[in-house]
Amino acid sequence: MRAKNRLTTAFLKSAPVGKHCDGAGLWLVKREDGGAQWVLRVTVHGRRREMGLGGYPALSLAEARKQAERWRNVAVTGSDPVKVRKAEERAERRENISLDVLTADAFEARKAELKGDGTAGRWLSPLTLHVLPKLGRMPVTDLDQRDIRDTLAPIWHVKADTARKAMNRLSIVLRHAAALGLDVDLQATDKAKALLGKSRHVPKNIPAMAWADVPGFYASLEEPTLTHLALRLVILTGLRSTPLRTLRLDQIEGNIWTVPAEAMKGRKDATEAFRVPLSREAQRIIDLARPHARGGFLFPNTRGGVISDMTLSRHMERRGLEARPHGFRTSLRTWLAEATDTPHEVAETMLAHVVDGGVVRAYRRTDFIEQRRALAERWADHVTGGAGQVVKLAGAV
Question: Boundaries of each Tyr recombinase domain copy (predicted)?
Fold first, then answer.
């Protein structure tokens, strides 16, 4: 056995940068930034393994020697200390199998699939708001359909979409728990749906303005305020308000606005940004908004962020209008259907909808930018007072 206990507490307090051996594979690694880390080197089946034990001085010399002795003994039996420690950590985590813990674990495993890694909180919010406050501490193995029914019953008919999402997320969490080897009822959510019955909620489409009425409303947005300018750009581009409200100046180059893929709803699997052709009128509105820009954002608010969606909606509400900003996407889509001969895939791309399956999109590598540019100009002509006449698209496919 190699000599042990070479280091002293006094030496450690002023140890220079470098590696310092205590013996029998235990080392203190002193970094240039002043920090230090205990490292143990052992040999298992002829292969050297290195494992960190903790930082110094949080882990004292005596405690580091104690841990080193334990893991050396594990190595002597032929087991890999690194793998043994990981197994112990997994077992320790599994001791707490509450719905709270399993939900967090399932979310962590799926973050990469979610837009912006789920930072907006929309994946978790149906559970954190309506399920976890009541069931979060319950062991996931005890969860049954009655628990789920009683928890979601208050919103099943009045907040049907939220209840549906909560049920979907619960099903994912249960499948995740089953994959970890826990004995859960994978049919609990389906049974809960049967107990709750069919939702009486009737979904309502977001109120939209008839496309023939859009020019009159557009003309009323005559003030150079952020609200008026943002609403004008919502109308002209046909995009959802989120990418527009978070529009950054560096996303605009000439007559093209490039929206990052992660900012586009329904395009979380996209690897490319979405290009928006800007009509001459849209470019004029952007130029009018530039003096308001702050922090790189074209539509900032006074608190350092950007204007809210409610700011735009309340403006229309105060005007006594039933329609809402999102409804202008419907106005544009209806105009495309009724006043143009635009092919379906081009019209859907105008609204940044993903059309066709992945195989078709893999071969059809176009975003119809030139056709959409012509349509954007025609739409701008209409909303600024044109007749909205039938549009013929040269070369449309």
Answer: 201-376
**CA end-to-end distance (rounded Å), the chain:** 79
Against a cut of 0.85, is the pTM above it? no
Query: Topology of 211-383 in CATH?
Result: hpI Integrase; Chain A (1.10.443)
C-alpha triplet 189, 193, 199: angle, nearest 5° = 140
Listing from the earlier edge strand, what are the strands of the sheet with 274-277? 252-253, 256-259, 274-277
What are the residue ranges spanned by the domains of the chain? 9-94, 96-196, 211-383
Identical fold at 9-94 and 96-196? no
The per-residue pLDDT string of the chain (397 residues; one tens digit each, 9 = 90 and over) reads: 457 889 999 999 888 999 999 998 999 999 888 889 999 999 988 888 899 998 998 899 999 999 999 999 999 998 888 888 887 776 666 567 899 999 998 988 887 666 554 555 578 889 999 999 999 999 999 999 999 999 999 999 888 889 999 999 999 999 999 998 888 999 999 999 999 998 776 666 667 889 999 999 999 998 889 999 999 999 999 888 888 888 999 999 999 999 887 777 544 444 578 899 999 999 999 999 999 999 889 999 877 788 888 888 898 889 888 888 888 899 999 999 999 999 998 998 888 887 655 544 554 567 889 999 999 999 999 999 864 443 344 333 3
Superfamily of domain 96-196: Tyrosine recombinase, N-terminal domain (1.10.150.130)
